[in-house]
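May I ask for a single protein's sequence together with how it folds?
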Amino acid sequence: MTLGQRLKLLRKRSGWTGTQVATALGVTKGAISQFENDKNEPSTELLLSISKLYGTTIDQLLASFSPLDDELISEPIIEYKQNLQSDSDSTLLIENLPANSKNQYVPYFDLDVTAGRLDRYFEVKEIPTGYIYAPEFADCVACKVYGDSMYNRILPGATVFVRKINNLKYIDFGQVYVVVTEEFRLLKYVEKHSDFNFVTLSSENQDKKRHADFPVEKKDILNLLLVKGYWNQITN
């Protein structure tokens, strides 16, 4: 894991924005972005301040392989997660989010989207399990991906951020969508079909024996959600 990746995960774990960290360290938000994207490195003096801010050490931040990596990767991305049984529980959860940044948290639904075989299907729960701090996807909802048909773009275990398409007339063909029917919930490219009443679902994975393209009739699509972004799990 790079220094930038560690800094970004530490900030997300702390629930802070880039602006908040920049203010705490006395630098610009742009500088924090450069550090987190490995475009620049903080000075030794600034690294000391960063390590104190996040409760770690300079050695752990700079090591080629740090014990910090396993800790960060194993921690759940979902913040303020709890078991929700009703809409009132969900309301309480929202009220517990930081008041000055509620609109930067994305509802996370504890359901699986399959980028793979059709026999993996899970019931939809309308009450979010929790919320993820993801200001760049503030108008989306989040869920987890299983299967490898979108490998090596969207990896198994990734968190995807999706936005519902209300009218199938406005499909942006060639983009990645979550396609929901009564039989499956799949993460696929949606392509044009020769018959206007159908679309073709295709995979990133080129193993066509396992992930062949197939048609779906538009009238069978219950929900179509455009993937606006995703977080792949970070590994060494």
Notes: Residues 3-14 form the longest helix (12 residues). The chain has two domains: 3-74, 87-231. The mean pLDDT is 77.
